[in-house]
Write a structure and sequence with these properties.
Strand content: 25-35%
Structural class: alpha+beta
Shape: globular
Low-confidence stretches: 4-9, 154-158
Mean pLDDT: 84
Radius of gyration: 16 Å
CATH architecture: 3-Layer(aba) Sandwich
Distance between the termini: 37 Å
Number of domains: 1
CATH topology: Trna Endonuclease, Chain: A, domain 1
Number of strands: 13
Number of helices: 2
CATH class: Alpha Beta
Oligomer: single chain
Helix content: 10-25%
């Protein structure tokens, strides 16, 4: 595991493991503890264009892109989980820019982004921007990927 500083991640260093470069130690730990040996196919940092470069006469509006940290797939290749590792589920972990990208991604690809906060033996999950009636269990807590993203929709911000 090697670390190198990055301008994009001012609070930490990039971490290289198994040929992947992670944006933070938390992201690398999530990979090592939960993704690497999960038994399911996965992709690290795929890039998606959410809006195109748009010409507005004499100028242009830049495109909006998003790269989730992980996509965990079913054995048939369909998406099971689109994951973004965060420090918290509050406003310091998920800012307005994240919320907009998560919503644009879900609207374009029909699959929500799951914001994950890594803990010692498990991780907490919410699906940002998805509405569903609330229940008592929030956020959803798990230690593997044997759940549906709908299980994590019962979280509301306070």
């Amino acid at each position: 595991m090697s670390k190198s500083p990055t301008a994009l991640n001012k609070r930490g260093s990039k971490v290289d493991i198994d040929g992947f470069t992670f944006d933070s130690e938390k992201e690398a730990q999530f990979y090592l503890r939960f993704v690497k040996d999960c038994g399911l196919p996965f992709v690290v940092h795929p890039r998606f264009q959410l809006t195109p470069l748009t010409d507005i006469g004499t100028g242009k509006i830049t495109s909006i892109s998003y790269s989730p940290d992980f996509i965990i797939k079913n054995l048939d290749g369909s998406w099971l989980h689109v994951i973004d590792v965060k420090n918290s589920h509050g406003i310091y972990g998920i800012d307005q820019g994240n919320k907009i990208r998560f919503r644009l991604f879900a609207a374009k690809f029909g699959h929500p982004v799951e914001a994950v906060v890594v803990r010692k033996n498990d991780f907490k999950v919410i699906t940002q921007g998805v509405t569903k009636p609330l229940n008592e269990k929030k956020p959803f807590i798990t230690s593997d990927f044997a759940y549906n993203w709908e299980d994590a929709t019962n979280y509301t911000e306070r």
